[in-house]
Write a structure and sequence with these properties.
The protein has 3 domains: 3-81 and 250-269, 3-Layer(aba) Sandwich (Rossmann fold), CATH 3.40.50.11950; 108-173, ATP-grasp fold, A domain (Dna Ligase, domain 1, 2-Layer Sandwich); 178-246, D-amino Acid Aminotransferase, Chain A, domain 1 (2-Layer Sandwich), CATH 3.30.470.20. The protein contains 7 helices and 12 strands. The chain has helices at 18-34, 64-75, 84-89, 92-101, 151-163, 206-220, 252-269, and strands spanning 3-8, 38-43, 56-59, 79-81, 109-113, 130-134, 145-148, 168-173, 178-185, 191-195, 224-231, 237-244. The protein has a 4-stranded parallel sheet with strand order 2-1-3-4, sandwiched between helices. It has a 4-stranded antiparallel sheet with strand order 5-8-6-7, with helices on both faces. Strands 10-9-11-12 form a 4-stranded antiparallel sheet. With 270 residues, the chain is an alpha/beta fold. Helix 1 (18-34) packs across helix 7.
């Protein structure tokens, strides 16, 4: 029988989604068990102190230290999904460079060192409002993704980041239009989307959204992913965020079956 390790996400990296992240993980474990796979569960926070003997790993880890440890294991020959390289690429400071370089429509963004807090400012955008986002891991705190309307607000967020030891921030153009949230699994016939704000419901080409989402995931090196897009008033689509293994909360039961089948198929093909 196939034996795999499953890495459960540390709660710190599940802000507002602790229960949902735990559920998609456990439902994936259940689905793999039904496929005849033996799963041994590990905790992300223990990765630095434990030995993982299994050669196949599926992981929801997102923290810097846990991801580094998984990268070491991958470099030693273990198969990991999502790959820790994909997780690192999806950190914002990396993602905002990778996606535009692959031709993905993406908002204008600057990666700024907190130590050079005045190098790029609110005025650099000539806009009424911009986003300030922490540049490393995904949001774990209320201020980690903040819409600001002035230079004073931007400075205050930077001071908050500095106090918390955050080294980089992303300043990002605010795009106007319908915000869409989506979930997908590369290589599986599964794609779910819905309007997040429902302001205009501008018509758009669904096939184009699927194409851009999958192209973004492949560019980052992710198999199990979600994200956000904005549809402008003329129907153009821009990707604004890609997430490494989200909770799939609205479609968890269906998604867990596809995730388990993807993991099973990947392992069997090696």
């Amino acid at each position: 029988m196939l034996q795999v390790a499953g890495i459960r996400r540390e709660q710190l990296y599940s802000p507002n989604h602790v229960g949902n992240d735990a559920l998609i993980f456990m439902q994936t474990v259940e689905q793999l068990t039904e496929l005849g796979v033996i799963v041994k569960i590990y905790e992300e926070q223990d990765l630095g102190t434990i030995q993982i003997k299994e050669n196949f790993i599926f992981s929801m880890a997102q923290g810097v230290e846990g991801t580094k440890r998984l990268l070491e294991l991958e470099e030693k020959g273990k198969f990991i999904i999502n790959s820790p390289r994909g997780s690192i690429n999806s950190y914002r400071a990396n993602m905002v460079k990778i996606l535009p370089s692959k031709g993905i429509p993406f908002p204008k963004s600057y990666v700024v060192s907190i130590a050079e807090k005045n190098k790029i400012t609110f005025k650099s955008f000539n806009a009424r409002k911009i986003w300030v986002k922490r540049g490393d891991v995904h949001a774990v705190h209320r201020e980690d993704v903040t819409l600001v309307y002035s230079e004073d607000e931007r400075k205050n967020i930077f001071l908050e980041f500095e106090k918390r030891g955050i080294k980089k921030a992303v300043l990002q153009e605010h795009l106007y239009g319908d915000v869409i949230k989506f979930y997908s699994i590369v290589g599986r016939p599964f794609f779910h989307w819905y309007y997040l704000n429902g302001i205009n419901h501008t018509p758009f080409e669904e096939g184009k959204l699927i194409e851009l989402a999958n192209k973004s995931a492949v560019a980052l090196g992710l198999d199990i992913y979600g994200g956000d897009a904005v549809v402008s008033d003329n129907g153009d689509i821009s990707i604004i965020d890609i997430n490494d293994w989200p909770s799939f909360a609205p479609v968890r039961e269906e998604a867990s079956k596809h995730i388990a089948k993807l993991i099973f198929q990947k392992i069997k093909s090696l």
